[in-house]
Specification:
It comes from Ramlibacter albus. Keywords: Lyase. This protein is an alpha/beta fold and about 250 residues long. It folds into 2 domains: about 200 residues, 2-enoyl-CoA Hydratase, Chain A, domain 1; about 40 residues, no CATH class. The protein contains 9 helices and 9 strands. The protein is globular, with a radius of gyration of 19 Å.
Length: about 250
């Protein structure tokens, strides 16, 4: 039940894979997600990350077959959510490299949480979104709920959690969760083109933009805001504009 990490030039592909379970996240997969994103964060050559699913689904939720092992004790349940799940989500959320979500098919529960941590979300017309865990008899963990509510909007989060609502891609686009909705057959190509466009731009500027946006969300100051002034990317971008040529970053 691996999460597969592959790098092709400046773009990394993270594939959520749990054959026969529509990419449902196991405890081991959450740990793999954290370790893999922590490694990518340190890769200067990586300029964009595409997160996708396998077998026609992005991620259908958690691997419920594991749940009886730990969900019925408060201590082990705490460890699962605060260490395994939050460890994976935090690694995606706090990654300074731009992250594109390529969403096809089911994006439920854990899938909603992972997608909510991505910067740009591109979905196929048949994709479905929700977190119907009320049907399983438990709430969403606090930090996970905060991530979903921030990305999808509080009213959408309430609808998903309280009503077990499942929404389609066009509705999620109208609610500003998705950046783009395309025919299913075109989603992978559009995600790749998006990653390529990002990869051609200034990578350190992208990382600084992500840090700034995180700081602003949490109400923190940005003391490093102008430290890039003497940097090579800054000089190259300005020089290329003046010389009427394409910058090389």
């Amino acid at each position: 039940m691996p999460i597969v990490f592959e790098q092709q030039g400046s773009i990394a592909f993270v594939t959520i894979s749990n054959p026969g379970k529509l990419g449902a996240m196991s405890r081991a997969m959450w740990r793999q997600l954290a370790a893999g994103f922590d490694r990518l964060q340190r890769e200067d050559a990586c300029r964009c990350i595409v997160v996708r699913g396998e077998g026609g689904a992005f991620c259908a939720g958690g691997d419920i077959a594991e749940y009886p092992e730990f969900r019925f004790d408060a201590r082990t349940l705490h460890d699962f959510h605060e260490q395994d799940v939050w460890g994976g989500l935090r690694a995606v959320l706090y990654c300074d490299i731009p992250v594109v979500a390529q969403i096809e098919g089911a994006c439920m529960g854990a899938g909603m949480e992972i997608a909510s941590c991505c910067d740009i979300r591109i979905a196929g017309e048949s994709a479905k979104f929700g977190a119907p865990i009320a049907k399983l008899g438990f709430p969403m963990a606090p930090r996970e709920a905060q991530v979903v509510a921030r990305a999808a909007g509080e009213q959408t989060a309430r609808e998903m959690l309280l009503e077990a609502a499942v929404l389609d891609a066009n509705e999620m686009k109208a609610r500003r969760f998705l950046n783009r909705v395309l025919p299913d057959a075109k989603v992978a190509d559009e995600a790749l083109r998006t990653a390529q466009r990002i990869s051609e731009l200034a990578p350190q500027a992208a990382r600084l933009n992500k840090r700034t946006l995180r700081a602003l969300q949490s109400g923190k100051a940005v003391p490093y805001a102008y430290d890039y002034a003497p940097g090579a990317e800054h000089r190259e971008g300005i020089a290329a504009f003046i010389e009427k040529r394409k910058p090389v970053f």
